[in-house]
Amino acid sequence: MAEILSLRDAVAQLVHDGDTVALEGFTHLIPHAAGQEIIRQRRKDLTLVRMTPDIVYDQLIGAGCARKLIFSWGGNPGVGSLHRFRDAVQNAWPVPLEIEEHSHAGMANRYVAGASGLPFAVLRGYTGTDLPKHTDTIKPITCPFTGEQLTAVPAINPDVAIIHAQRADRAGNVQIWGLVGVQKEAVLASKRSIVTVEEVVDELEPVPGQVILPSWAVTAVAEVPRGAHPSYAQGYYDRDNEYYEFWDSIGRNRDSFEQWLDEKVFGMEAAK
Amino acid sequence: MTATTEERTYTSDEMMSIAAARALGGGQRCFVGIGLPSTAANLARRTHAPDLVLIYESGTLGSKPGRLPASIGDGILAETADAVISVPEVFNYWLQPGRIDVGFLGAAQLDKFGNINTTVIGDDYANPKVRLPGAGGAPEIAASCHEVYVVVRQSRRSFVDKVDFVTSFGHGSGKGDREKLGLRGAGPTLVITDLGVFRPDPGTSELVLTEIHDGVTVEQVREATGWDLKISPELSTTTPPTEAELKALRELKAAK
Lengths: 272, 256
Known about the structure:
The structure holds two protein chains of two kinds.
Chain A lengths: L2 E2 L2 H8 L5 E4 L8 H9 L5 E5 L4 H8 L3 E6 L3 E2 L3 E2 L1 H9 L6 E4 L2 H13 L3 E4 L7 H4 L4 E4 L6 E6 L5 E10 L4 E3 L6 H7 L2 E10 L9 E3 L6 E4 L17 H11 L2 H13 L6
Parallel strand pairs in A: 1-15, 2-3, 2-11, 3-4, 4-7, 11-13, 13-15
Antiparallel strand pairs in A: 5-6, 8-10, 9-10, 11-12, 12-14
Chain B lengths: L11 H11 L6 E4 L3 H11 L6 E4 L3 E2 L13 H5 L3 E2 L2 H9 L6 E4 L3 E3 L4 E2 L2 E2 L8 E2 L6 H7 L2 E5 L7 E2 L16 H5 L6 E5 L3 E5 L6 E6 L5 H6 L6 E8 L5 H12 L2
Parallel strand pairs in B: 1-2, 1-5, 5-10, 6-11, 10-12, 14-15
Antiparallel strand pairs in B: 2-3, 3-4, 6-7, 8-9, 12-13, 13-14
């Protein structure tokens, strides 16, 4: 059964140095507050997994929390580049960052395999591209029934998945709606999970298109209102598009980034 | 680049978006990349192709946004969709089996055979000159849609002889390469830029200039192309934007 914890305690108990950690949320419900709590607790040597390492991972990478990144698209959506990610890849600042690069289809299937208890997934993917030359977790496979050449990618089974959702009840059952991305797969693929939610309620009113993660499939739930900001939570608040523009100016330089870290992460009280 | 002639009332970017929108027909199912492709696809839906089906990789089928989405995950795409689905479902159930007519993509680099690079600039993957965002959904969109349209601002930096990295496979090194690899879609059949429109030569699959935007010279196009560009013998001039098209585009861009 999921335990209801503070975000601080959830990260302290469940995210360890050297862990493989997946923060998911496909532009919607990105767990930004949890990412900043990981920075605040100064985790290091993490292998970060995420399809779209946007601002949330730019912050973790710039803060030096990551040793490796497994991903499929690393940009600031609608704005441009992730400058901290680029600085890490191009200049090894503040620490070297190993990358393992996939496509969205490949990453999604790696989570599906992980959630399914399978060692790998099969897809029609990567054909003719240069990605298999540089990523050793992309291999050809022959269909045993038709002889067709397909592509295999290994399961991803993170130590911890962290997602943000709209609601949980007091027993720790989690309710998500709107764009649900790969959050369910990420949680089910992982050994442990933290779900931050907008609110903990007495009863989960059904919502069309909802995904429910039962309490027994989740390790910890933490109530963190606006925990997805500057991403959004459908039914609660809109995407803060201006923040994504603003981040471009913060992330662009090491000095402005470090000042931001000091003021907005280390200078803030730990999440309750 | 802005229009060169005094009386021109539109920019070359507007011409590009309008030319790209015109390429989309009614009822087509279109997998839309963010940025220029999204602008063009939404313009098409607001003008001549109201029944165009827009599919975004964030998990929306049949989005009908009243303004341009700020990103592929903009809430308006989910709120106006026929169906909202998970990301694995988008790729496995809808894209991979070939249910989508047109993949509409952008590019950082595009080469003469329509191969797309959005990964790294420079020859050394491990030490790139510029690290770009990467693949996203594009490799499988380029592989599995029935055909692919690319919209890109054209310069010698973006229009190159050979891409530094093949993120999404076009026609490889020429005619027949897609068939050899077992790719089911036709690959890039149309490339729209701010200077003109390009199509693969039926014999070689090399991109040739087939339409030139009004007021642009062939010399200008050649100067912005990183290979020895061939010009179609049936080269035509793009019809300039109509008042209605410009109005629709500007309203779409201004809407919040």
